[in-house]
Amino acid sequence: AGAAGTVLSQAALLAALAWGLGGGAPGMTVLALFLVLATAETIGILPRAGTALAAAAAGARRLLEAADAAPPLAEPAHPAAPPSGHAIRIEALRFAWSPDRPPVFDGLDLDLPEGTRLALLGPSGVGKSTLAALLLKLAAPQAGRITMGGTDLAELASEDVRRRIACLSQDARLFDDSIAANLRIAAPLAPEAALWRALDRAGIGTLVRALPEGLETRCGEGGARFSGGQARRLALARVLLSAAPVLVLDEPTAGLDAETERAFLETLEEVTAGRTVILIAHRLTGAERPTRIIRLAGGRALPAAG
């Protein structure tokens, strides 16, 4: 897009020169050159504007398609009351994304008492993120069940489940809005004091205070205003703003350099104390301190030493 903008600007300048050399009045030639130079920056960004417009149109089309689509899971006709506890149990779980594909899980059993810090390990495609989707009621098992506080997730309203299970993923998105607005996605009525507490706990409060606009600083699309590590900490602050007693951390440090990854994991260990934590990862770095380590293989959970 940048090269195309340069070509457009140069073409406009050459056209003005050619018009002058071809018999245009000297005064008008100078005026034409002045106008071309004055609008060169605007001409130069036209290709990028076109690209951005196309991307926005594609995004709008996906939003409209999503709005017209049926919910991924039907809500129970008479939802059960939210449980008082949040211990999670997975019993004889079987799940496949479609009938013509092999099952991701086939007889998976897993027991997570309250306060468990579980590291769930395995290579890509083994089902780690699928388990996160099942816990968040973005998908439903074909056999077996998942319970929270003794109540089957199938009997609970999705909203009630997601109030108790929050997720921080590798692609946790920041929107082109203020820091405050991005944080309040998790808690729309949260006062400023709560936002600052969450930012401080996520280790990014000092940076936000140093910004001229503070909480009103715009993040840029996808968090472009910040580095990868800073954007991930803002996303963590959003999760911490939620009172959910269960946190699913799905590859939360993917794409970060080793130093930033270690610092981020150390922050996670500190700020998630007292909650049930399910850390989904390819491998452990040594900064994590799980109480249990499980490897997924062949659709089942296998104890692992690390």
TrEMBL record:
ABC transporter domain residues: 88-305
GO MF terms held by the record: ATP binding; ATP hydrolysis activity; ATPase-coupled lipid transmembrane transporter activity
Keyword ATP-binding: yes
SUPFAM superfamilies: P-loop containing nucleoside triphosphate hydrolases
Keywords: ATP-binding, Nucleotide-binding
Keyword field contains Nucleotide-binding: yes
Pfam families xref list: ABC_tran
InterPro entries registered for this protein in UniProt: AAA+_ATPase, ABC_transporter-like_ATP-bd, ABC_transporter-like_CS, P-loop_NTPase, Type_1_exporter
PANTHER family per the UniProt record, alphabetical: ATP-BINDING CASSETTE SUB-FAMILY B (PTHR24221), ATP-BINDING CASSETTE SUB-FAMILY B MEMBER 6 (PTHR24221:SF654)
Record-given protein name: Efflux ABC transporter for glutathione/L-cysteine, essential for assembly of bd-type respiratory oxidases > CydC subunit
